């Protein structure tokens, strides 16, 4: 039976607060300075000095600006690090706008296919409501970028630079989602009226043509052939003519993307360790690469990241960047804010509880470019962000090892670093399918 708040209860709470000699001082501090500033423990800065025993030189950071393409920036950054080392190009960038165009185009088709697949369900069903809540967005996952590159390749940023709408994506996203929801109405009506497969295919084809036009006006039309002209760090001139996006990837990055696999740490009861998982309705390219996660202990999670860094290769990772994170100073540390002491309230929950109860999920992707090992154990990690050079140490952040334990959920590593038992599971096990709204389906 429901119970209301009584006057007696309120009186007790007021009396308790009045009896606290520190209450008024804290009220003035918090109300004027805010919760974060008042609870900040700047001693954390001493522990988070940006010095690391393993420190990869990866050049200047990129800037995603007012867009949600961190996953894309982070993935392309790991590839440009490799390319820069091979071709002596320290400040080179790959085109995030090129992959952004094809990602949004493919997401539109992926959305249409999911609309058709759920057309027999009422709009009140959870799956249909989930689809309509966000038909597409800027975010994504590593496997989704691999699907784009495998189909369309990549190009240098000089070939397809940023536009207003790629760097400030809210207008494009709202306009594209308006169209996709309208198209969902049309597709569902066609199915309800028992239209033929040919009529549905024709309607969808027209819709995709309109999406292509919308994206071309907003982002520019992608190139199909180009010349790559550049000077290396020694000022030597180079030109490579007649490249395609796929031949450029093959020549200048030349990764077998199937070698790079998603490793997660999700300590919830529904996801036993050492098994693989995928998420229903998560993806972008229909019949493209499937999102597939191997769930491991945090000990194995960190060991794999360290192995790849020791081999000289940066590591894509996903985390909940808003938790215990100071943006301007570039510090992610569980000790940076002490809200428990400020309010005399126990705010603690386990990592599993935060996932199960909606307190945390992956919200941002960045790149690990270093780690500080003391007696063989990690104490802090160097992080390349994609928020420009005005935050952190010229755009680089420091993450405590304790913060990684609590708020990191995904790394991507070359499967050569997996022990044989985990490698076999990753390669052969059919993944368990999770619900579309599972936190491991969150887009960075």
UniProtKB/TrEMBL annotation:
Name under which the protein is recorded: Aminopeptidase
Main subcellular location: cytoplasm
Keywords: Aminopeptidase, Hydrolase, Protease, Thiol protease
InterPro entries: Papain-like_cys_pep_sf, Pept_cys_AS, Pept_his_AS, Peptidase_C1B
Subcellular location: Cytoplasm
Protein family: Belongs to the peptidase C1 family.
Pfam families cross-referenced by the UniProt entry: Peptidase_C1_2 (PF03051)
Species per Swiss-Prot/TrEMBL record: Levilactobacillus tujiorum
CDD domains for this protein: Peptidase_C1B
SUPFAM superfamilies recorded: Cysteine proteinases (SSF54001)
């Amino acid at each position: 039976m429901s119970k209301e708040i009584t006057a007696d209860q309120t009186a007790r709470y007021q009396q308790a607060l009045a009896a606290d000699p520190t209450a008024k001082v804290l009220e003035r501090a918090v109300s004027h300075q805010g919760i974060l500033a008042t609870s900040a423990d700047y001693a954390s800065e001493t522990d988070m000095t940006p010095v690391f025993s393993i420190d990869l030189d990866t050049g200047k950071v990129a800037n995603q600006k007012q867009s949600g393409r961190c996953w894309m920036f982070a993935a392309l950054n790991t590839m440009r690090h490799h390319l820069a080392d091979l071709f002596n190009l320290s400040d080179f960038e790959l085109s995030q706008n090129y992959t952004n165009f094809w990602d949004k185009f493919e997401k539109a088709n992926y959305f249409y296919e999911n609309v058709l697949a759920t057309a027999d369900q009422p709009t009140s069903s959870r799956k249909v409501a989930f689809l309509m809540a966000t038909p597409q967005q800027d975010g994504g996952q590593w496997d989704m970028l691999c699907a784009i590159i495998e189909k369309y390749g990549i190009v240098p940023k000089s070939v397809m630079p940023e536009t207003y709408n790629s760097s400030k994506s809210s207008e494009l996203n709202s306009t594209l989602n308006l169209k996709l929801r309208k198209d969902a109405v049309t597709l569902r009506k066609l199915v309800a009226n028992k239209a033929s497969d040919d009529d549905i295919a024709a309607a969808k084809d027209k819709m995709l043509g309109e999406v292509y036009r919308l994206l071309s006006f907003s982002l520019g039309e992608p190139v199909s052939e180009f010349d790559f002209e550049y000077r290396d760090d020694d000022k030597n001139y180079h030109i490579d003519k007649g490249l395609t996006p796929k031949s450029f990837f093959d020549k200048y990055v030349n990764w077998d993307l199937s070698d790079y696999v998603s490793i997660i740490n999700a300590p919830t009861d529904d996801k036993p360790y050492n098994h693989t998982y995928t998420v229903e309705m998560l993806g972008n390219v229909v019949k493209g690469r499937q999102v597939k996660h191997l769930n491991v202990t945090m000990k194995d999670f960190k060991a794999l990241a360290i192995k790849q860094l020791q081999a000289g290769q940066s590591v894509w990772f996903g985390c909940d960047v808003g938790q215990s994170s100071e943006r301007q100073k570039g510090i992610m540390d569980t000790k940076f804010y002490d809200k428990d002491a400020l309010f005399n309230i126990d705010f603690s929950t386990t990592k599993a509880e935060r996932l199960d109860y909606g307190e945390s999920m992956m919200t941002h992707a960045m790149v690990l470019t270093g780690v500080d090992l003391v007696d063989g154990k990690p104490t802090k990690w160097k992080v390349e962000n994609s928020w420009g050079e005005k935050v952190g140490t010229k755009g680089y952040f420091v993450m405590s090892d304790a913060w990684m334990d609590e708020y990191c959920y995904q790394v991507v590593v070359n499967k050569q670093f997996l022990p044989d038992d985990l490698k076999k599971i990753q390669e052969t096990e059919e993944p368990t399918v999770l619900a579309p709204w599972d936190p491991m389906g969150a887009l960075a």
